[in-house]
Amino acid sequence: MHLHNTLTGRKERFEPQDPSRVTMYVCGPTVYSFAHIGNARPAVVFDVLSRVLRRRYGSVVYARNITDIDDKINKAAAEQGVDIGVISDRYAAAYHEDMGALGVRAPDHEPRVTQHLPQILDMIGRLVASGHAYAAEGHVLFHTPSFSDYGKLSKRDSQALMAGARVEVAPYKQHAGDFVLWKPSAPEQPGWGSPWGRGRPGWHIECSAMAETILGETIDIHGGGHDLIFPHHENEIAQSVCAHGGKPFARFWLHNGFLNVDSTKMSKSLGNVLLVRELLKHAPGEAIRMLLLSGHYRQPLDWTEDGLQEARKKLDRLYGALRELADVEENPDEGEFLPFVQELEDDLNTPGALAQLFELATQAHKAGDTVSERRRIKTQLLKAGRLLGLLHQSPEAWFGWAPPRDDLMPATEIEALIAQRAEARKSRQWAESDRIRDLLKARGVLVEDSKDGQRWRYS
Q: Any residues with CB less than 8 A from the CB of 335 and at least 6 apart, and which?
């Protein structure tokens, strides 16, 4: 198995420290609002990676945190006049619901910052004691010049690092690039006691402390979005390595590419932020997942409505193949489709893996009546689908999906029109057949003509 390591800039053979306990930490959501589709991409990508790792190694300890101490949460809580826990609990639950609809499994551990204040304070204390951090005016800051490898992950020199940090150089900083580990809280702000006064942790130290607590000082894989490379992950490395006496923090760093909408960066100012729960009103979660996996995880992904419809058509093809194989059962003793697995183990090449999945679908159409061959194909389709988090429902459920709309055309009315169309086709009244098909399409119903008759589904 090979993975592209951001730290070295090349694809490397992945071998865990301990094959009986593979460790992975992924930066999760800051829960102050609903998840958008950009938030969903790392959740889906690293869900697939966790499945692939479990297939190869069995025991995987996967941690994905929830950030529930953050100034955006504080702001939302103040505006609504509630405790920060009300905001974080509400949106954490929404995140779980939305990601569940996309087939994302829960990680093995989901640490929250509020549950790890003692560990965070302990790590800060160690950094201060070892001379890598200092207290100033109620703050504690990490002194970046104390870590000679600072900038190695993001491959920036000191001038670029200062420009990229986008921080106001406070007078209490010893160096412009020093970053906050602890900051004071005003009386009206949430705060916790510490040796340096009442305050709250900085963002970067939170992940370092939680990863150390759950996974240990050196972990196998650390993942997240490309936007986290600097400063978040760069800072995580600095403080973790220094707190651990020079031990490596993460052996492999994986980052998924940006997600754009219609070739434009998502932003509130442009009004093109797509919330997962809004998308789920118009398309099945599995189609959204399919589109997120259609591009290589390290490359930018352009989200379009046409792309989403194409993802549905691809799933129609796969579920259509399974429908043709309904007369045979899955064989648990059947091996996997190795070309598919090889693509996934080559730096999680999901486009290549999907191409192999469609090759299996093609084989299904050509299988004929050979029971053993049909069982093989069905089994390999389902096993491959499980690794991608796809094909987890019956063909009937997939084709029967309906959007949650009040104006949905009743199934009885659809069936009546389908019967009329069947009569028109039987009488070779093609114009009438087309009229009924177009009428159904206008009402959000797609009709498919097959060797077994007409099939329909909501669009």
A: 380
* Token output for 177: 């690039």
Note the pLDDT tens digit of each residue in 358-405: 999 999 988 888 999 999 999 999 999 999 999 999 999 999 898 877
Three-class DSSP labels, 357-413: HHHHHHHHHHCCCCHHHHHHHHHHHHHHHHHHCCCCCCHHHHHCCCCCCCCCCCHHH
380, burial (CB in 10 Å: exposed 0-12, middle 13-18, buried 19+): buried
Classify 275 as helix, strand or coil: strand
Strand-strand pairing, 133-136 and 139-142: antiparallel
The CA dihedral of 319, 324, 326, 327, to the nearest 10 degrees, is -170
- The strand ranges marked E within 262-366 are 264-265, 301-303
**In this structure, which amino acid lies at residue 32?**
Y
**Euclidean distance between CA atoms 123 and 208, whole angstroms:** 9
Distance CA 357, CA 362 (A): 9
| Residues 6 or more apart whose Cβ sits within 8 Å of residue 147 | 132, 238, 241, 242
Strand 179-184: give its sheet, edge to edge: 133-136, 139-142, 179-184, 199-201
Angle at 88 between CA 82 and CA 94, to 5 degrees: 120
Any idea which residue has 């069936």 for tokens?
A: 415
The beta-strand segments (E) located in 80-209 are 133-136, 139-142, 179-184, 199-201
pLDDT digits (tens, 9 = 90+) for 80-130: 999 999 999 999 999 999 999 999 999 999 999 999 999 999 999 999 999
**Euclidean distance between CA atoms 109 and 17, whole angstroms:** 20
Q: In this structure, how many other beta carbons lie within 10 angstroms of the beta carbon of residue 427?
A: 10
Q: pTM for the full model?
A: 0.91
* Contact criterion met (CB below 8 Å) for 231 and 204: yes
